[in-house]
Structures are given as structure tokens and as C-alpha cells.
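in:
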């Protein structure tokens, strides 16, 4: 009788072990979530210590982000500021604002979130094939400039009520940082977060190695292609790429960039096709990638060489061929 009880107990234990094995195994496997956000796609791969799928939390965080910084959400804080409504900013807005200011200073005004009226007038101009006149650009420039606004006690003050903000070249990177923080808070230490090409990677990939990411080959193709110019091996870093090859306009046989030089008021026109920045935060990498597209190859390279916390990889055209150049610290990321 007693031995039967033991056998039953042993069988129950074996059953329990079998029951536990799959749970333990699933806790060890990476989870991938993807979907649409911020007018583009996101992909998140992570190893959660308890195998918990965080998709709902991730999407909720992204939607909350849009309530602050999306110009496509008419009820967002940034949209209200653009309509000159009285609005108290939140911490997301304040962090973005201060970082945008820092990158404007670092890049000599090449990056500037007050570029919005210029982006609008050129965007409209390309669509209607009615380019803005030099006089129109001159008059808009009188209210473009990051020194013409201030943030104090969560209120944005404008010198000129016509000044408007566009966080399009910094928000995606910031959103990547926010999701990376969410994963860290939830105990994940191995992950890759990517939104529209801007990314943060931490720890190891599912093969137990540093993460491998590709820099796209610049091609005159508005649709994403899988042609990779260079594979990088990075970890515990953020990366962002800005390129004039996917978003541009053609008029009278000439190609115009969607990146505007806020100092001249005109779309940038030089041979730099794509700028990839590796930095500690994706928000900084994102903004600096756009700044570099404004600066051009020589000044962009100088900017990266003068700041030890960032590195850059630039693809430019030289006649009919593509050439690349990178800052000295970038060598370590190139996958041989
Ligand atoms: P992508 O959307 O391909 O990542 P960017 O990060 O370079 O490209 O962001 C491009 C957007 O940034 C433009 O659509 C425009 O809204 C805005 N923008 C254009 N020029 C500037 C600039 N000099 N400084 C800040 N934002 C800019
Ligand atoms: Mg950018």
C-alpha cells in the first residue's frame, strides 16, 4: 500500500517535471513583436526573464508618446503649441525639447525643430509644383530658429506666433529609447528595438552574439529594399540613419531632398546620400543623422571626430559611383 503511494508520488513528480520543462524553455526564447506606429513599422525582439509577451505595454507606451509629440495627432501637445493654444508640456516634450536644443547647438543650427514652416511650404510647393519664391523663404526665415523659442516651467514661449515645431527628425529615435527603457524596467537585458530604421540594441541576439544590423544601400527607390551597404556588429548602443534617397521630390529633372537647411531655408543640395550615426541614445543619433545630412560630408565627419560619444558612417556620390567614409571610432562596428 505504502509502495503504491510512493509510486504515485514519483509519477506525480515526473509529471510535474515534464510540465515545468516547456515553461522553462519558453522563458528562454526571444519574443518578437511588430506592427505599425508613427507612420512606419516597428520591430522589437527581446528575452524576457519569465517569457512574458510585452506587446500590449509596448504599443500603449508608443500611443502615449504620440499624445505628446506627434504632429499627425491634432490633440497632441506639439499640435497645440503649433496652434498657439495654452498648453502645459509633459516630461516627454521637455526631454525632446532640451535634446533638440542641444543638437541645434552642436550642429551650428543645421538641426532645428522650428523648421516646420519651411517643411510645410516646400512640401506644399512640391505637391502643387508651385515652388516658394525667394521672398517667401526670406519672410519665413524671420520666424524660424531655435533661439526664437524658449521652454520655461513647462510652457513654450515664442518670439513670433508664426513659429511652429516639427519633431519628425528626433521623435522616432526618442520613441526607440522609451521602448528600450520599458524593456529594461521589465527585467530584459537582451533586446533589439527598431522603429523605421532607428534602433537600440542591448546584450546578445538569439544566437548569443552581438546584434548584427545593416546600413541600406542608397537607391532611388521609395520602397524599402533589402540591399545592404554594410553590416555592423553593435551592442549596448543606438543607431539611426537619415537618407535623401527614399524621401525626395523630382521637378524639372532635378532631385530635391526632404531635408531642409534651416539656415538658408532651402532643401539641401549636395552629394551626401546617407548618414548613419551610432550614439548612446537613439534620440541623439536620430537628430544628429539629420543634422549631418544638412552639413554635408566634410562638416558631418568633423562633427563626429570632435565628439568622442558619437561615430558616423557616410555614403556619398562621386560622379557615377558610391563612396563611403567614416569617423575613426566607427571601425569597431564594421563586420568583417
Ligand atoms: P527619416 O524620416 O527618413 O528618418 P529624418 O530623420 O531625417 O528622416 O527626418 C526627416 C524629417 O525631419 C522631415 O520630414 C522634416 O519633417 C524634418 N526636418 C527636415 N529638415 C530638418 C532639419 N534641418 N532639422 C530638423 N528637422 C528637419
Ligand atoms: Mg532623423
Amino acid at each position: 500500500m505504502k509502495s503504491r503511494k510512493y509510486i504515485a508520488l514519483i509519477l506525480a513528480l515526473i509529471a510535474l517535471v515534464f510540465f515545468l520543462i516547456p515553461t522553462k524553455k519558453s522563458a528562454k526564447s526571444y519574443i518578437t513583436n511588430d506592427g505599425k506606429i508613427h507612420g512606419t513599422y516597428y520591430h522589437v525582439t527581446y528575452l524576457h526573464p519569465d517569457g512574458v509577451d510585452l506587446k500590449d505595454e509596448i504599443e500603449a507606451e508608443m500611443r502615449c508618446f504620440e499624445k505628446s509629440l506627434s504632429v499627425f495627432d491634432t490633440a497632441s501637445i506639439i499640435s497645440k503649441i503649433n496652434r498657439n493654444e495654452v498648453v502645459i508640456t509633459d516630461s516627454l516634450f521637455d526631454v525632446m525639447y532640451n535634446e533638440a536644443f542641444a543638437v541645434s547647438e552642436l550642429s551650428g543650427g543645421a538641426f532645428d525643430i522650428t523648421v516646420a514652416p519651411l517643411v510645410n511650404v516646400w512640401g506644399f510647393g512640391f505637391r502643387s509644383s508651385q515652388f516658394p519664391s525667394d521672398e517667401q523663404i526670406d519672410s519665413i526665415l524671420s520666424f524660424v530658429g531655435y533661439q526664437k523659442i524658449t521652454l520655461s516651467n513647462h510652457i513654450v514661449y515664442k518670439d513670433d506666433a508664426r513659429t511652429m515645431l516639427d519633431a519628425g527628425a528626433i521623435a522616432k529615435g526618442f520613441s526607440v529609447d522609451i521602448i528600450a527603457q520599458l524593456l529594461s524596467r521589465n527585467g530584459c537585458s537582451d533586446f533589439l528595438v527598431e522603429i523605421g530604421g532607428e534602433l537600440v540594441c542591448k546584450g546578445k541576439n538569439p544566437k548569443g552574439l552581438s546584434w548584427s544590423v545593416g546600413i541600406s544601400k542608397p537607391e532611388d527607390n521609395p520602397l524599402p529594399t533589402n540591399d545592404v551597404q554594410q553590416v555592423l556588429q553593435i551592442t549596448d548602443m543606438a543607431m539611426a540613419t537619415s537618407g535623401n534617397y527614399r524621401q525626395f521630390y523630382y521637378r524639372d529633372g532635378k532631385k530635391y531632398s526632404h531635408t531642409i537647411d534651416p539656415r538658408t531655408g532651402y532643401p539641401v543640395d549636395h552629394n551626401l546620400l546617407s548618414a548613419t550615426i551610432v550614439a548612446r541614445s537613439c534620440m541623439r543619433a536620430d537628430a544628429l543623422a539629420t543634422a549631418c545630412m544638412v552639413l554635408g560630408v566634410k562638416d558631418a565627419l568633423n562633427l563626429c571626430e570632435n565628439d568622442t560619444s558619437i561615430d558616423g558612417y557616410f555614403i556619398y556620390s562621386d560622379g557615377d559611383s558610391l563612396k563611403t567614409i567614416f569617423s575613426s571610432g566607427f571601425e569597431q562596428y564594421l563586420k568583417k
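note: Residues 169, 240, 242, 286, 289-290 surround magnesium ion (ligand 2) (CB under 6 Å).
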